[in-house]
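User: Could you go from structure to sequence for me? I need the amino acid at each position, not a summary. C-alpha cells:
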C-alpha cells in the first residue's frame, strides 16, 4: 500500500476501452494515480509491482476471468477490490465476494456511483499486510493494545486488527474482521443487515444486503467450532450468542 501522505494508487483491470477510460477518469478525479491493464494476468502482475490501494476488476476478462484474478490477487494482497460486471446474476456476486472482493458494481454504472462505493471502502480501516492461512499459528497471542474484546474463545485486538480463537490467530479478511468486531462490541444487540451495511460498508443500499450474508458465512467458516457464537435472528439479522 502507498505510504501515508502519498497519492493513492489504483489498478484498473478492464478489457473494454470505453469502460476503462471512464473508470480511469473517475478515479483520477478522486486523486488516484491510475495504472490500467486489459487482462487478468496483467492485473495480478500490476498489483505486485504497483502496490495499489484499490483495484477495479472486470468479471468477464479474456484469459483468466475476474474470479480467478481476484483469487490470485488475494493470495498476496489485502488491497480493496471492487468487482465490475456486465452480468447481473446473483451467482456471480456470491462467487466474487467469496473469493475476496470487497464490493460489486454492475454495468452500466455512473461515475458518481463508483465514487460513492470507493469512498465508502476508504472510510473503513485497512490492515497493513495481507492475511494468509499460513500466518495463523498456535502460539499464544502477543501483548494486545488498547481496545480488546473477549467473547468466549474469541479475542479481538481492535487497534492491532488481529483476531484470535483460543490463542490461535485467525486469518480474516478486512471485512470479516470488521464484522466480528462490530458483533463483539455489542453482544446483546441484534444487528440488522442494513445496520451492518451502514457500519461496516458505509452504505445503506438495501440491494446490497447479500454482501452481509456472504461475508458472515465466510466468517463462520473461519471460526470453525466457534461459528455458533454468530447467531442468526431469523428475519432480522445477527447477534453474538451468549457465552
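Assistant: Here is the amino acid at each position, in order:
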Amino acid at each position: 500500500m502507498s505510504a501515508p501522505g502519498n497519492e493513492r494508487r489504483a489498478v484498473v483491470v478492464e478489457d473494454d476501452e470505453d469502460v476503462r477510460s471512464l473508470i480511469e477518469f473517475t478515479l483520477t478525479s478522486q486523486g488516484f494515480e491510475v495504472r490500467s491493464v486489459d487482462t487478468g494476468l496483467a492485473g495480478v502482475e500490476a498489483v505486485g509491482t504497483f502496490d495499489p490501494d484499490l483495484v477495479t476488476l472486470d468479471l468477464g476478462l479474456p484469459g483468466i476471468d475476474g474470479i480467478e484474478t481476484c483469487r490470485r490477487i488475494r493470495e498476496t494482497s489485502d488491497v480493496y477490490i471492487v468487482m465490475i460486471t456486465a452480468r447481473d446474476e446473483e451467482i456471480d456476486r456470491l462467487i466474487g465476494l467469496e473469493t475476496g472482493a470487497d464490493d460489486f458494481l454492475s454495468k452500466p454504472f455512473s461515475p458518481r456511483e463508483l465514487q460513492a462505493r470507493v469512498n465508502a471502502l476508504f472510510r473503513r480501516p485497512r490492515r497493513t499486510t495481507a492475511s494468509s492461512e499460513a500466518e495463523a499459528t498456535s502460539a499464544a497471542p502477543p501483548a494486545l493494545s488498547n481496545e480488546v474484546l473477549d467473547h468466549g474463545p474469541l479475542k479481538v485486538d481492535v487497534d492491532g486488527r488481529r483476531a484470535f480463537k483460543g490463542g490461535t490467530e485467525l486469518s480474516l479478511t478486512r471485512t470479516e474482521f470488521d464484522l466480528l468486531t462490530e458483533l463483539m462490541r455489542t453482544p446483546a444487540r441484534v444487528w440488522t443487515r442494513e445496520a451492518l451495511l451502514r457500519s461496516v460498508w458505509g452504505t445503506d443500499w438495501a440491494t446490497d444486503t447479500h454482501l452481509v450474508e456472504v461475508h458472515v458465512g465466510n466468517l463462520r467458516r473461519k471460526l470453525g467450532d466457534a461459528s455458533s457464537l454468530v447467531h442468526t435472528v431469523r428475519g432480522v439479522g445477527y447477534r453474538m450468542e451468549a457465552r
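One structural detail worth keeping in mind: Residues 15 and 128 are 30 Å apart (CA to CA).
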